[in-house]
Amino acid sequence: MQGALKEQGSGEGTAIEVRVESISQLFDTLDPFPFPQRDLDKEAEEYIVGWARELPRAQKLTIRIHLPHEETHSKDAIALPIAFDRYFTYRAEMLGRDLNELFRIGRRALLVGVTALTVCLMLSQFLIGMFGENTLVQIVAESLIIVGWVANWKPIEIFLYDWWPISRRCSLYRRLAVAKVELQPY
Phi/psi of residue 41, each to 5°? Predict the structure, then answer.
């Protein structure tokens, strides 16, 4: 499989150019499902997604497949837009589920973190009230407060940073699912 990126005029969007000898090169040959339900080959997916990631988000995408003339009118060639749409829609749904799972983990981690922080703050206050404000008690009390905040590190990381890449990739797959697929004989 060979490919190139080609930018079109302003209204036409951007084309991702892929050259293959046969449509079967685009799909996983080990996948037992019939053609339109087959997964894309990992290399083909990485190539298409890699180029799409480089393109402006506001532009519509076109996936232009260059293939031998005799392949352009085959049953598989006609089903190619449906196969791409199905595959990228499925991948977007999977990433959506991954994002939901990440948020579920984040909520649980937040519950654990807030509970740990509350317990640590209460223990800190209890130690200061029980033993006074000598240096050793202050060190232990401050350490407990730090432990409480560290327990919130993971939920903070999830809700502030971890979800962005998954959400961006999900949007990219949605864009690819609705991309225009063109066949270009050579």
Answer: -60, 140
Domain with 63 in it: 2-95+178-185
Candidates 21, 41, 19, 17; CA nearest to 29 is 41
The tens-digit pLDDT sequence of the chain (186 residues) is 555 444 443 345 579 999 999 988 898 877 777 777 788 999 999 999 999 999 988 889 999 999 999 988 888 888 999 999 999 999 999 999 999 999 999 999 999 999 999 999 999 999 999 999 899 999 999 999 999 999 999 999 999 999 999 999 999 999 999 999 999 998
Residues 26 and 104 in one domain: no
Q: What pTM does this model have? A: 0.79
Instruction: Looking at the structure, tell me whether residues 84 and 121 fall in a common domain.
Output: no
